[in-house]
Amino acid sequence: xxxxxAASRGMSEDDVRKIVEASVERPWLGLFGTYKVNVLKLNxxxxxVRRTGGN
Length: 55
What we know:
By secondary structure, the protein is mainly α. The chain has helices at about 1-10, 15-20, 40-50; strands at about 25, 35. The protein has a two-stranded antiparallel sheet. Helix 1 crosses helix 2 (about 15-20). The protein is elongated, with a radius of gyration of 12 Å. The mean pLDDT is about 90.
């Protein structure tokens, strides 16, 4: 999905991938739960890049 998001937002795949990695919530104490992407945090970060024109 990184390719599709990058294309729709006019960004490079590498930039989107970095933002996605920063939006991942890791398991509590590294043991409890699963890795998941906080989609709200991801969309806010992507919108911020668009407004500022960079990282």
